[in-house]
Known about the structure:
Layout: H1 11-18, H2 24-32, H3 35-49, H4 65-84, H5 87-93, H6 96-103, H7 108-111, H8 119-132, H9 135-146, E1 152-155, E2 171-175, E3 180-184, E4 192-193, E5 204-213, E6 216-226, E7 239-243, E8 256-260, E9 263-266, E10 276-277, E11 283-284, H10 294-324, H11 343-378, H12 385-413, H13 425-437, H14 442-461, H15 472-475, H16 488-515, H17 520-526, H18 528-553, H19 558-578, H20 580-585, H21 591-608, H22 612-617, H23 623-626, H24 637-646, H25 657-667
Helix pairs in contact: 2-3, 8-9, 8-10, 10-11, 10-12, 10-13, 11-12, 11-18, 11-19, 11-21, 12-13, 12-14, 12-18, 14-16, 14-18, 16-17, 16-18, 16-19, 18-19, 19-21
Organism: Petrolisthes manimaculis
Active site: 439
GO cellular component, one term: peroxisome
Amino acid sequence: MAARKEGECCEDLRRERAKCSFNKEELTYLMDGGKDKTLHRRKIEDIFLADPEFLDPIRPEYMSHEERYNNELRKACHMIRKFNENEDMQQLVGEMEGIRSLMGSGLGVALTKDGNPLALHFVMFLPAILGQGTVEQQGYWMSRAWTGEIIGTYAQTELGHGTFLRGLETTATYDSNTQEFIIHSPTITATKWWPGGLGKTVNYAVVMAQLYTQGKCHGVHPFIVQIRDEETHQSMPGVTVGEIGPRLGMNTNDNGFLRFNQYRIPHTNMLMKHSQVLKDGTYVKPANDKLSYGTMVFVRVAICFDAYRQLQRAVTIATRYSAVRHQSELVPGEPEPQILEYQTQQYKLLPQIATVYGIMFAANDVWNTYNEVTGNISEGNLAYLPELHALSCGLKALSSTDATNGVDVCRLACGGHGYLATSNLPRIYTTTTAAITYEGENTVMWLQVARYLIKSYHDAQKGHRLQQSVSYLTTQSASAHATADLSNTALVAAYKQAVSVMVSNAAAHLQDHISKGAVFEKAWNSCSVYLVKCAQAHARYYTCEKFVDGVNRAELSEGTRTVLLRLCRLYLIYHITINQGDFLRSGALTGGDISSLEKEMADILAALRPDAVSLVDSFDIHDRVLDSSLGSWDGNVYQRLYNEALKSPMNQTDVPQGYYKYLRPLMKANL
Ligand SMILES: CCCCCCCC(=O)SCCNC(=O)CCNC(=O)[C@H](O)C(C)(C)COP(=O)(O)OP(=O)(O)OC[C@H]1O[C@@H](n2cnc3c(N)ncnc32)[C@H](O)[C@@H]1OP(=O)(O)O
Ligand SMILES: Cc1cc2nc3c(=O)[nH]c(=O)nc-3n(C[C@H](O)[C@H](O)[C@H](O)COP(=O)(O)OP(=O)(O)OC[C@H]3O[C@@H](n4cnc5c(N)ncnc54)[C@H](O)[C@@H]3O)c2cc1C
């Protein structure tokens, strides 16, 4: 593949690549999960990227909203057809994981650009059927949905409520006479608002609605609802559906609105894996009423993978550009250095490379936990559900925040050119930041983690055994850091101690408010800024621990392990230095420790500097997936910027229409 061949690059990048101290392929294999998987991924990329159907006639930024939607829909449908029509392709791409990569942050971002109208079908509609449907329901709906015979989305959020699910207003009232549910939107705020693909693309949706049967409300449950006619694609009688208008980014996802007027669906359309309504209207409770939130748990875990892949792209662009860009003088009279020579630039970029690995190791761990816990749930054991919920909320919030901040740091690190659409950094940013809001707004996610931490803290006080991710709340004490041990193990212990003290302080603050007469919920609100900090510190500790474990367990040659250990060390130290107050106040580290760590960080930046370009090369991102004038493999930055500017439709004529209509009359007004 041309974009990966050595030798075809500018002199700056050639020299950078010659300095590489480790085996790049080893890191690529580590990220993909093994050599076979890397080869497999490259093969799929080669097939899809060679297909001219996936090319855009012009940059999507120059198209109208509707043209952009049609262009992305064309490519998304071609992708599904290519997949369905070819058995070899199905074998090659694989099941859910492969198709998710085609639709999402892997290869998908090269095939469709600013949101994929079919993404929610694969990311949430199919998982909702699998996670919430009975075996018979899965058999019926999956066979139709998998091939694209029907297309669906996940319609939960309403105009009035996104976060507070118990406040959703859409109703599903069971009529035992006809054995139907009546779906209804009683108010304007009950209008479903935001679901991807809902506006114009889908003909079905999993609708989350308050279930009423035998005169009683049983809370939010999932229903498969037909939105549009399968032949004409017109909206069904009793259904009003449309698109919600332009957004910060992801504009071709056709996020939509949806209202129901006493709309009837068959009894069989309630997804009944966890709770049931019998034909006579009797309600059968689930083992845990939060099981109907399961689709969100799955997607929160998946978001962690999207987050680091977006950051990988941004930091690849910014690092290569920083090796090609020369600016200012480091030493008066000497040639202008590559901007990557500036320590401040290294401090912007190298921690982002480390963050990619930190999130990756933690995400892999949560993914394994997700599979274990869902396996247990299917056998009736729900003991680990609260821990999984807290981990998935915490890591979703940490990864989307870190990736968004990191992408913006990369954009800023490219100076003015990073602000250009052709750098692709603006689009990567608008896509990444959306994940802070969707699938559970991050502050709300942090507060869920804090709730779990405080509960666990109180359990520990009562002498109960804690689940593994919070077991440190039993064992750590607030004793001052005694030794000069600053090994990775000692730093992870310091993270644990800092959170442990913070959680115990938060519990004391809560108790203080309660002692003064506040009800628990009001006391909680009064402490919530600090509670969020506890949750963030916990998620950071967890990520640090998984990073250290991940590097220790990886099978790597000496040189590759050394570079990965440096990144790991940088990650541990970086977050200590930017949150040093937590470590000092808790007594986990001394001022002297932090000074030593700051010095060490400067040394690590210098040690990693020669490997910077090779580190991002090892992410192995194809030029078409990067889609950036600043970040391509060959480093031919200036020519690409110029060529892209020439393609602007405004440059197809010398004098614009606007000149004759507006400018000339103004300029010649006094003649
Ligand atoms: C390509 C583009 C892809 C884009 C995809 C985007 C798709 C979407 O955005 S879909 C919509 C996503 N929406 C959300 O995520 C909504 C966020 N809100 C929520 O999840 C919940 O309402 C939440 C968690 C905030 C609070 O729920 P609520 O029912 O009020 O529960 P609450 O009273 O706080 O807690 C009750 C208990 O349930 C637990 N709980 C809450 N959620 C869960 C869960 N998912 N699993 C297990 N337990 C849970 C709590 O921990 C708590 O436990 P405990 O009492 O032991 O402490
Ligand atoms: C790009 C995109 C795609 C989306 N796709 C879908 C989709 O496919 N399907 C779907 O159903 N939904 C979708 N959503 C909706 C998304 O899930 C919600 O926007 C999200 O859950 C946040 O809810 P909200 O908008 O009601 O925000 P709000 O809850 O109103 O949040 C507003 C502010 O209030 C704060 N706040 C709210 N509650 C609390 C609390 N308890 N404690 C402290 N602070 C609080 C928040 O932190 C935030 O600062 C999408 C959203 C976006 C942006």
